[in-house]
Amino acid sequence: MTRMNFLSHHKTVLLLALGVAVGIGAWWGLSGSAPSNSLITTQGSSGATIADKSLVDTLLQLRSVSLGGSIFSDPAFMTLKDLGTQIVPEPVGRPNPFAPVPASAPGASEDAKLFAPRRP
């Protein structure tokens, strides 16, 4: 049997053996133990607990704050001036601004009738 004839008859067996060999090599290469002198270091949880303790202390201080109405009778509050702007009432527009303008709008001139049909 020639070499070419052997390859053509046993092609699937050879491809299967090659696939198994590649799979075993990949598994062996990827499943190795991690090096002990890794460049990645992890911090202990002590940094997070300090921040958590600070947050809890702040929340406990805020819990003891009581808001009473006594600030409104304080003379410093009474001297404050309102610098807000007045809201001027504006006329109300149409209920549906996207609806066509009616041809018989009260007070509308002939030039203002945009969608009025032309009369012959």
What can you tell me about this protein's structure?
Residues 91-120 are annotated as: Disordered. This protein is mainly alpha-helical and 120 residues long. It has a domain at 1-29. It is 41% helix and 0% strand. It has four helices and no strands. It has helices spanning 3-9, 11-30, 46-63, 75-78. It is flat and about 105 Å long. It starts with a helix and ends in a 42-residue tail after the last helix.
List keywords for this structure.
120 residues; 4 helices; mainly alpha
Shape: flat
Low-confidence spans: pLDDT under 50, at least 5 residues?
none
Q: How many helices?
A: 4
Helix percent band: 40-55%
Beta percentage is: under 5%
Quick one: how many beta strands? Answer: 0
Radius of gyration (CA) equals: 42 Å
What composes the largest sheet? none
SSE run: HHHH
Please state the structural category. Answer: mainly alpha
Arithmetic mean of pLDDT: 80
Distance between the termini: 101 Å
How do the helices and strands line up, and which of them pair or pack?
Elements: H1 3-9, H2 11-30, H3 46-63, H4 75-78
Question: Care to give the gist of this entry?
Answer:
It contains four helices and no strands.
